[in-house]
């Protein structure tokens, strides 16, 4: 409701004050939500940065291990064996929610060494390389999980901040101004009514005095 069209009545004043209280309560809830989202976002950022360093270190380790396996076994044999290693489908995705924000948990069960390839055709270097690669996959999946969560939190923070700004800079000031305007108009109306009442009373007193004379 626009201020100019707000009737200066006590009922409208009470309604405006109730609306202001509701807006302030909503602002408090949204502000707490935003702070919780930012805290979770910062925590995930730190986890992502720390894990990113581990991933880079693990990539170097995997590269060295596979190079060692290639040297000891030969590139052709390594390529042949890689084709018979089964595809790992031990990945599951769990969806959760935090402050109306989707949080994903990627669960990965690193596969153990199995007999999908002949131990006579491989060596220890190949086993070490395969195990280190499983370690890398685990970290990369976790990194993807964190990146997705961070992006979702970032979007929710922006969305919540937009609502907070709207309440702080538009809706609450507008309602406060409405209350101020209605109060001023009511006071002005009461002053006018008091003046009219006083004038009537004074006239009555004068009329009574003149009648007595």
From TrEMBL:
Kindly give the PANTHER family that the UniProt entry links to this protein.
Answer: V-TYPE ATP SYNTHASE SUBUNIT D
Family note: Belongs to the V-ATPase D subunit family.
Q: What is this protein called?
A: V-type ATP synthase subunit D
User: Which molecular-function annotation in GO is an example for this chain?
Assistant: proton-transporting ATPase activity, rotational mechanism
Region entry Disordered: which residue ranges? Answer: 193-213
Q: Kindly state which keywords UniProt assigns to this record, in alphabetical order.
A: Coiled coil, Hydrolase, Ion transport, Transport
Catalytic activity, EC:
3.6.3.14
Q: Which InterPro entries match?
A: V_ATPase_D
Q: Kindly name one Pfam family recorded for this protein.
A: ATP-synt_D
- Coiled-coil regions listed: 143-192
